[in-house]
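Training component of the fellowship. As part of building independent skills, the fellow (R.M.) carried out the full modelling exercise for a liganded target. The chosen ligand was alpha-D-glucopyranose. The inputs are recorded below so that the supervisory panel can assess the work.
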Amino acid sequence: MKKRIFAAAGLAMIVVLAMAGMAYATLSGLSDSEIEARVKDLVSKMTLDEKIEQMHGSAKPANIIRGSFMSGIWDTAENKRLGIPALKCIDGPRGVGMKGATAFPVGMSRGASWNPELEKRIGEAMGYETRAMGANILLAPCINILRHPSWGRAQESYGEDPLVLGTLGSAFVVGTQKHVMACSKHYIANNIEGSRFSVNAVIDERTMREVYLPHFKMTVDAGVASVMSSYNDVNGFLAGQNQHIITDILKNEMGFKGFVISDWQNATDNTLLAANAGMDIEMPTGAHLGAPLKKAVEEGTVSQAVIDAAVTRILREKLSFITPDFSKGYDKSKVGGKEHAELAREAEQEGAVLLKNDNGALPLDKGKLKSILVLGKLADTPNTGDNGSSDVPASYVITPLAGIKAKLSQAGVPAPQVKVIYNNGADLESAKAAAKGADAVIIVAGMTSKDEREGGYGTGDRLNLNLHADEEKLIQAVAPETGRLIVIMEAGAAVLIENWMNDADAIVMAWYPGMEGGNALADLLFGEVNFSGKLPITFGKTLDQYPPFDIKAKEVKMEYFLGYRWFDHNNAEPRFPFGYGLSYTTYQYKNLKLDKKKVGKSGAVIASVDVTNTGNMAGEEIVELYVGYNGSKVERAKKDLRGFTRVALKPGETKTVSLPVKAESLAYYDVGSKSWVVEEIEYSVMVGPSSADKDLGLKGSFKVSGI
Ligand code: GLC
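Fellow's submitted model of the complex:
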């Protein structure tokens, strides 16, 4: 049964549908059984040519330039005779890849919000814009787990933990699919750009199930219409031609009912392998699933049943989602308009992470400061991230400098207004002199699409995780000249800060903050909004703390331990742990209670904890729950995130937060029996504000036994 909710359906509609025996409806309003009947009828009427036409993009091979990306709509053919609409794809995932769309903060920033409700609204906004612009499928979310911060597309992902990825990814899918189809990508193990077209990701069956697949499964359960294969090989076969991961796992084991679509250029290279593995649509051309597929069917090397199965999947989603006059009533002025821009601002307010704040450096008090020096090229550069397929050509971008200036020119600022001086930092002496006279110095430093981006053929990845040498020098040179140095970093993943972190009084991780980023950062810097974001990835101290990363690698073993689990496993102390983030207030955690000491394998334990805002500013705290395994038969992570939530607290306020832990979420994948095993052992529960052991002082435990 599909888990989709009709666009305009409120609770009443769902109740009516449930009463009619249809718990869920589709965008088209057709029931599952109506769709299956119509699909069957259409397939029976289609010629082989018409079927194959459904299975590939309409771009001509000659028009495709390897390694170049064009923003716009990519389509498959429309079948006028039978009234089957074309598939019209637009890129995500930081916004719709069309001129004038809303550029949201990148996925990593939204990962740092740990807020599925917000992510659902973002998905909904992007879905709306996609439909208003005439497309019917958004090529997002990107839910590749981050194995290494060097990955050039790290910014598109939500981080290094399957639960965060799956929770945010499925929220995004539900939001997007109120308007158009979504597409979970890139299936699977796409985590190097340099050799993305050729690297063989070696993943054992357990690691695949526990680390690389849970988040894909969560989006499948949320009803995602399509899944995009990755370019790399998985265990010796191109992911797009890999029967084991496409048919055995995605379609059969996970029960995925939608269609699999190939990534865009080299994701298939063999007609027989691709078709027989279960690839449903080749994009953007029919190089392998076009004319050569017809020949293969005629020669009997690909069966008619394979074709019918693929076409059935494609038509099922088209009939579920695409209605005649699909974009009618969708208001183009909402694309990149005020409402979505405000949402983009809210997203960055929740996604920026306060990493350090000594001596009350932040928030800045605009009533007290006389002058602020803003330093660094990036302060004055629109910088929304990669310029590859995830690029969003927004109509404007508020830079950090523009955001700070706008904040200080607003009405109500006590005279004399704060003076904002800008210096690009290229000349150290002039930067130092300017810093001497300023009450606060804000340096914006970090990466751009020149440093990290979508690539291939040896390009794209960020091999040096430090800030640029000139930026580090600028920080070090200016620090002695000021008592208040704030460093704002822009990047898609971790930055190594050992060389200068002691020079800065405050450090903010802004990621790529979207078109409203400057405004959101100003809201946070001046304390109008409290920081609440927490790292969805681990920030190491040195590069060698991370697993090996080679952009020319022909083969990479995908480790079971990844992210904080890797750091824990190697007893490596990170600079900032997964789940870490400060705010302008303080929180106290007390009274961890588990509702039972023993639970059956199909049951759940509810953990509850009292969280108090002990400071004097309202805020939102992300509460994290980890489990550990006592006496497991197999090697386990020291701790696994198994629950999280955001809680809003006024100063002095206490709330009891409940986090359920399902026993089945504690299972490991047993390769021998090919099944999930929930062990009858003792599990420890740790709750706190980050994954650091010192933050997880509240502990409990329970046993699993019986059914
Ligand atoms: C790519 C990307 C993919 C994108 C597609 C279409 O090469 O890997 O994420 O959706 O092209 O632009």
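The panel noted the following from the submitted structure. Confidence is low (pLDDT under 50) at residues 1-25, 65-70. The domain at 334-536 is CATH 3.40.50.1700 (Rossmann fold).
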